[in-house]
């Protein structure tokens, strides 16, 4: 593979990895849980994710030729944990990819519904077309992937900046908006843009401590896969110059794109108004609400277009990442079958690994159409969320082992006060995992993750033990 990604590509890939569909569609539910204090939750979780990235960044800076940060787990924690993390992470990427391709088709249907066009019968075709297009982008050249992510990120950034500017203007002019019929027929009462919308009846935990604690897990998953930028290092020009800047810029991006957007939303819409719009617990997109209050009646179409872009960006990145992780697994595996996935195409990309991952993602329409299989998929997908936390913990443990190893690079991209901050990061991830047991909706995820750890983690540990035993026996002969 070749180093074709530039500083511009990596910086916008990092931005794209930070901004997902959760901000555009899920922030209303986050605000409903804990009101204005959700801003503090986003800042706290964002800082922890920044520390995670500093740990990953230090490892990748030490050896920028690695295709994935998972390989460091193998190096410092052993092949057993490496196999567990590698296969688990790749499996999670595929499951998330299946969810994202389903989301893309769903958002497309909603987008066309705003123009009274029904394409619900063509969801499967939308999924096939989108996935095929993104696979082609990933197969052509890594530079094309970088350019695509650049423009995807630009679209997302433009909407967020437009939201913030709109909010500032509305507050400055003291804008009053009438009762408005929002997307879906919901009638929202009249109001006005004001700083008082945030501070009126302010409470740190307006819905109790349980809701406040649950907001941490929700925000955590909004930041999920922020680590993706670490996978691009082996294909980046001047990685030791570009990577630190991309990672250190995460704090600024969090403050602008998450905190800035949330504050802008609550300046216009009183936080008490964020409630589920139906029995299924669906929440109106705050972005749609803000723009419709501003008189932009085509706001629903605009926001859903950007949401489709965000989901496409996520799927594009997942294909890239899944391909590289499967390629790394194939390199480290002695299996002749997996060995076939080590081949790099003439365009210098792991084509077979990308295609293999995409074929599994393409099973999404089939899985969704079979009731029994769909139920199992939901179970695995929910458990994958918990597995991500485990992998993050393993990465931080790996970072700690690296700092104590002979490989330690004293003049590298060092995490400051690593003993304290590394432990703090691990403790936070454990805390988030514990919060999964609070809600009935996420308890299955937590239990499923533990089952996966015991069964697959146990198998990987035993397999490593058997390999070491056989090797020791061979050496004694």
TrEMBL record:
Keywords: Amino-acid transport, Cell membrane, Membrane, Transmembrane, Transmembrane helix, Transport
Keyword tRNA-binding included in the entry's annotation: no
Name of the molecule in the record: Amino acid transporter
Record field: transmembrane: 12-31, 37-56, 89-112, 124-145, 157-177, 209-233, 254-274, 294-319, 349-367, 373-397, 418-438, 444-462
PANTHER family with a match to the protein in the record: D-SERINE_D-ALANINE_GLYCINE TRANSPORTER (PTHR43495:SF2), GABA PERMEASE (PTHR43495)
Keyword Cell cycle among UniProt keywords: no
InterPro entries associated with the record: AA-permease/SLC12A_dom (IPR004841), Amino_acid_permease_CS (IPR004840)
One annotated Gene Ontology cellular component of this protein: plasma membrane
Origin organism lineage: Bacteria, Bacillati, Actinomycetota, Actinomycetes, Bifidobacteriales
């Amino acid at each position: 593979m070749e180093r074709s990604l530039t500083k511009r590509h990596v910086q916008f890939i990092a931005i794209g990895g930070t901004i997902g569909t959760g901000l555009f569609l899920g922030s209303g539910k986050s605000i409903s849980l804990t009101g204005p204090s959700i801003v503090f939750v986003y800042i706290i979780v964002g800082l922890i994710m920044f520390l995670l990235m500093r740990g990953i960044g230090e490892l990748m800076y030490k050896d920028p030729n690695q295709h994935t940060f998972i390989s460091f787990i193998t190096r410092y924690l052993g092949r057993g944990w490496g196999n567990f993390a590698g296969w688990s992470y790749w499996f999670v990427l595929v499951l998330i990819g299946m969810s994202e391709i389903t989301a893309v088709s769903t958002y497309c249907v909603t987008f066309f519904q705003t123009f009274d066009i029904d394409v619900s019968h063509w969801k499967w075709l939308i999924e096939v077309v989108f996935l095929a297009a993104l696979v082609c982008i990933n197969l052509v050249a890594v530079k094309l992937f970088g350019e695509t992510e650049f423009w995807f990120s630009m679209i997302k950034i433009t909407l967020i900046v437009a939201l913030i500017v709109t909010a500032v203007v509305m507050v400055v002019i003291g804008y009053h908006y009438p009762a408005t019929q929002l997307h879906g027929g919901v009638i929202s009462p009249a109001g006005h843009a004001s700083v008082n919308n945030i501070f009126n009846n302010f409470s740190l935990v307006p819905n109790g401590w349980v809701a406040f604690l649950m907001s941490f897990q929700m925000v955590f998953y909004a930041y999920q896969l922020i680590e993706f930028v670490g996978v691009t290092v082996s294909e980046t020009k001047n990685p030791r110059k570009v990577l630190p800047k991309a990672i250190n810029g995460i704090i600024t991006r969090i403050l602008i794109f998450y905190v800035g957007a949330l504050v802008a939303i609550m300046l216009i819409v009183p936080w008490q108004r964020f409630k589920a719009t139906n029995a299924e617990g669906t929440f109106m997109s705050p972005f749609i609400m803000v723009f419709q209050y501003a008189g932009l009646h085509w706001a629903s179409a605009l926001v859903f277009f950007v949401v489709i872009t965000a989901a496409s960006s996520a799927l594009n990145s997942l294909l890239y990442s899944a391909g590289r992780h499967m390629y790394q697994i194939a390199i480290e595996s002695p299996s002749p079958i997996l060995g076939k996935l080590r081949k790099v195409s003439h365009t210098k990309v792991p084509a077979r690994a990308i295609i293999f991952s995409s074929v599994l993602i393409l099973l999404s329409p089939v899985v969704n159409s079979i009731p029994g299989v769909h139920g199992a998929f939901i179970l695995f997908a929910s458990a994958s969320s918990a597995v991500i936390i485990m992998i993050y913990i393993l990465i931080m443990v790996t970072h700690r082992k690296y700092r104590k190893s002979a490989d330690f690079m004293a003049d590298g991209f060092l995490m400051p006060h690593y003993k304290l901050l590394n432990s703090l990061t691990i403790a936070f991830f454990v805390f988030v995992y514990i919060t999964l047991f609070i809600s009935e909706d996420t308890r299955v995820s937590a239990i499923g993750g533990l089952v996966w750890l015991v069964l697959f983690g146990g198998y990987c540990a035993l397999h490593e033990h058997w390999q070491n035993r056989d090797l020791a026996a061979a050496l004694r002969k």
